[in-house]
Amino acid sequence: MLELVTISTLNGVLYGMLLFLMASGLTLIFSMMGVLNFAHASFYMLGAFFGFQISQYIGFWPALVIAPLLVGGIGALIERYGLRYVHRHGPVAELLFTFGLAFVIVEIVQMVWGKGPVDYRVPQSLDFSAFTVFSTNYPAYKMFELLTAVAIFAVLFAVLTRTRVGLIIQASLTHPHMVAMLGHNVPRVFMLVFGVGTGLAAVAGVIAGPALVTQSNMAAALGPILFVVVVVGGLGSLAGAFVASLLIGLIQTFAVSINLSVADVLGRLGVAPPTPGGVLADVWTVTVAQLAPIIPYLLLVLILIFRPVGLMGTREH
Amino acid sequence: MTAHVRTMLFAAATVAVTAMPAAAEDTVRLAYVDPLSGGGASIGEIGLKEFNYLAEVTNANGGILGRKLEIVPYDNKLNAQETLVQVQKAIDAGIRFITQGNGSAFAAAIEDFVQKYNERNPGKEVLYFNYAAVDPVLTNEKCSYWHFRWDANSDIKMTALTNYMKTRTNIKKIYLINQDYSFGQAVRKEARAMLTAKRPDIEIVGDEVHPLLKVTDFSPYVAKINASGADSVITGNWGQDFALLLKAAADAGLQVDWYTYYAGGTGGPTAIKQANLPDRVFQISEGVANEPYAPAQEFEKAFRAKVGVTLFYPRAVNEIRMFAQAAKEANSLEPVKIAAKLDGMQVTVYDGGDGFMRSDDHQFFQPMYLSKLGPISKDQPFDEENTGWGWKMTGRIDTKDTLVPTSCKMNHPS
Prior knowledge:
The complex is a heterodimer of chains A (317) and B (414).
Chain A: H1 2-33, H2 40-58, H3 60-87, H4 91-113, E1 129-133, E2 136-139, H5 140-162, H6 164-174, H7 176-181, H8 186-211, H9 218-233, H10 238-256, H11 262-269, H12 281-285, H13 288-291, H14 295-306
Antiparallel strand pairs in A: 1-2
Helix pairs in contact in A: 1-5, 1-8, 1-9, 1-10, 2-3, 2-4, 2-8, 2-9, 3-4, 3-8, 5-6, 9-10, 9-14
Chain B: H1 3-19, E1 27-34, H2 41-60, E2 68-75, H3 80-92, E3 97-100, H4 104-120, E4 127-130, E5 147-149, H5 154-165, E6 173-179, H6 182-198, E7 203-210, H7 219-228, E8 232-235, H8 240-252, E9 257-260, H9 268-275, E10 281-285, H10 294-307, H11 314-330, H12 335-342, E11 346-348, E12 354-357, E13 364-365, E14 368-375, E15 389-397
Parallel strand pairs in B: 1-2, 1-3, 3-4, 4-5, 6-7, 6-8, 8-9, 9-10
Antiparallel strand pairs in B: 10-14, 11-12, 12-13, 14-15
Helix pairs in contact in B: 2-11, 3-4, 5-6, 7-8, 8-9, 11-12
């Protein structure tokens, strides 16, 4: 029991940090620009494929730097020559723009790299197990994931709350005209924020690519859960996204390890389960473990009903 | 391919082409209805490549009754509704032969559709060739005369798998992990029933299902397997659900034997190599590349040289060969006449040995092989995904030992 709890906690934290790695850019763009970027997971995928391609030639570590810069650059260009014009037509137009963008990116990736998975491997220098708990190994690469996520959180948080740049960025969102009057180039601030946000998605892609499967459907597979993280954490709250990532990681991991079903609970209370084959028989025997992957979405629905601002959000949207 | 064989093929092709010049401009079209976009695209594309290659080879050998075989791809997006739309589109385009394999739910939809279509449109019958959907239901409760299945169904595979496991005395505790849909449930149910009957001393320490193609992090599942103390795992997982499961097992250092249906799929061998589990992952299939049977090895070699991937579906070779043979025997391209010839047809299968299309349920029976992935020796020429590891045969189950009963009550048209 202690073994399973310890390991589940570790797994939950690791998975949660992976989620945060991916959600950080999304929440940054939303909190700073008010744009809900549907194409975020696509930039993450682009990062993974760029990382794969670059690491083929000059190795993983240069790829970890170059790929996010490239993707961030693409993101900035998209903001400059696309989103900026769409912005005038309001948030719905922006939403639809990024929605369409997601499909375009997937198609481009399929044209270049095909539809099958590419052979993207963990770098040699991190391909060993860091430590062993109860005969379960924890690979160094996962520790690297964890540390990167924490580092990104710390740096982002510090920049936004403790520096002049952060001050200007935050002011640009709420009082763009005043900031412009003071001599700052507000559109350029937005362009940079979008570039950094997409670049962060690419960092997540480069790192998660070897750990998961790098293929053209990876954006679709992870997109929905990122929105859960951002909404549960509170739209636009970096700390909220961090807490929500951990929470979802832990909930999902622990749920998988629970083999309890409605029938078990009622059985203990002395209620006989319905006869097998009946209409409700399936509902009775579904275990918590089977429900694990949908629990985050359940959480999303509940949060929206009972606390629409999210766990740590400050504004109504 | 040796120069000798190539010359022979060329000669055969020349003879065939010159013998039937009039028919050459007309083609026989086979609709390939499988996912070509979205999550299943990687699997669908590989199947399409193989069918295109098979068409090429068939055409070089005189085609189907002298006509060129053409594969027409239709994208079903792994969606039941879309599958039927695409099948209807194919029929509207005048195509009367349909092949599909990925996903038993979609297979069931097509089988049902074709059955009804043929009842309503006598004289315009359509045949459905199933090369990979293995839910037993398709040749039992829901069987149809117009459906032919070349892949061994899940029950046959599990029978073969458990017959081998029965002899492995080191198996004490088994964990079942499967995808939560009709096929995964069938694997789970059969595994439990057959293990209980054949090795009552084996303890089933876990019986897990997880959502299909939705899990990105399998480490909680692996932690559970580890905690259960299992020494072996049975899984029907395919695609990324297998690759990610094995990756998570590799990360955690889980040391168990894996008994699988689809470990050979894309990404599987790479994950097994990364997990460093030599000779501990077993697969049940109708063919093993490294089995020393010359005609199959020649074919595999030529296929890999041309297409660049493993021949995933030896059964598709049987399908196309039998299609051509049935047309020849019937001396007709009428689906009704071809179906009558396929019904009960006996052949020598791609990997050697006898096979037959059982008349009772249109399930094809063939020798099955249990193989394991590991380092290969000099006389085993084929590795997988450039890992240096290849599939090696550990057991062959003769056709007669693969027979399973059927509940099908088929109406054969008189």
